[in-house]
Each structure stands twice: as C-alpha cells, then as structure tokens.
Design brief:
Elements: E1 5-11, E2 14-21, H1 44-57, H2 67-70, H3 79-84, H4 87-91, H5 103-107, H6 112-119, H7 142-151, H8 155-164, H9 179-182
Antiparallel strand pairs: 1-2
Amino acid sequence: QAPGAAVVIVKGDSIVFMEGFGLKTAGKNDSIGVNTVFRIGSLSKGFASVLTGILVQKGLLSWEEHVQDHFPEFTLRDRQQAKRMMLWHLLSHTTGLPYHAFTNLVERGFDTRKIVLEYFPKAPVCGKEGVFYSYQNAAYCVIEEVMKATTQKTYPQLLQDNIFQPAGMSHASCDFQSMEDCTDKAL
C-alpha cells in the first residue's frame, strides 16, 4: 500500500539495471514503470545551475553579471542590494532574502515572476548579498528570467537542447510553461 520508486543503476555509460517498484498512489492500482514522471523537488535546482554553467561556458552569461542587466524589473526593498545582485548570488542562495522567502506562495501555485515583481520589493533583506546564506525557491527561479532574456528560449526548451538531448535522456521531460512549473514537479 506504499508508493514506490523507479531504480536505475548505471555503470560507466551503460544501464545495468532499470525497474519500477510499487505504486504511484497508495491504495490504487497504478504501477510505477521505468518511464514514470516523478516530482523531484529541489533536485531541479541542480539542473538550473548546470544549465546556467553551460550558458556561461558558451559565453552567453557570466557568473559575475548583474541580474538587473537581464531582468531590469528585479528589485528588492534595498534597491542598492538589488542592483549589486549577481547571478552567482541567486544560485548560491546568498541573495540576502529571508529563509524560504515566499515558498508558501510558490507551493500554492502563484506565478513566480509575479512573486518576484510584487512581493520581493516588500520583503526584508536579512543580510548582504554573497555573504548571508538563506535557502530559496522563488529567488532561485529568477535565473529563468535571465536565461529567457539572454537566449529568447523557454526554460524547458533550454533544458531539452542543452541537457536532456545531449545526455540521451529521451524520456526526461519538463513539459511545462516555465521554471516554476518545472521546478519541483517533474523530470
């Protein structure tokens, strides 16, 4: 009666074991298979970081670029701190925003862009950027706006083109409209 999991063991570049176990929903007859899509939660942050690194390697972005250079609407209560905010601050959870700022709104389905534009300017800043560590969900999603402005492609398309397809991940998906949909929901 417990939900299950899909297990894959990879040795080198070969899959040596792949099988689904258990059920998608406890009490239902919906078996898990090797292609079942799971909610991956914060593991998706690794994909956002790797994707950003790929864009840095391609010369499209730099870790030291200011967020407002690509997403001018981004601001915080401390306008000067928002001006100083760099890409690496977003991805290292060192924006200076409070712990899990507005995660409750993200989990309730609020549009992340709207949260960033409407709520971030009202949130207290708890520390200096680059110094004060505070785990984030909504702030992490700001990188999507930077990527879209730089490449003119959606986050799901960038994942497909730069990670899934080159890695031969033919069953991986991020079949959603934006990063806030993709983050925490599927892969």
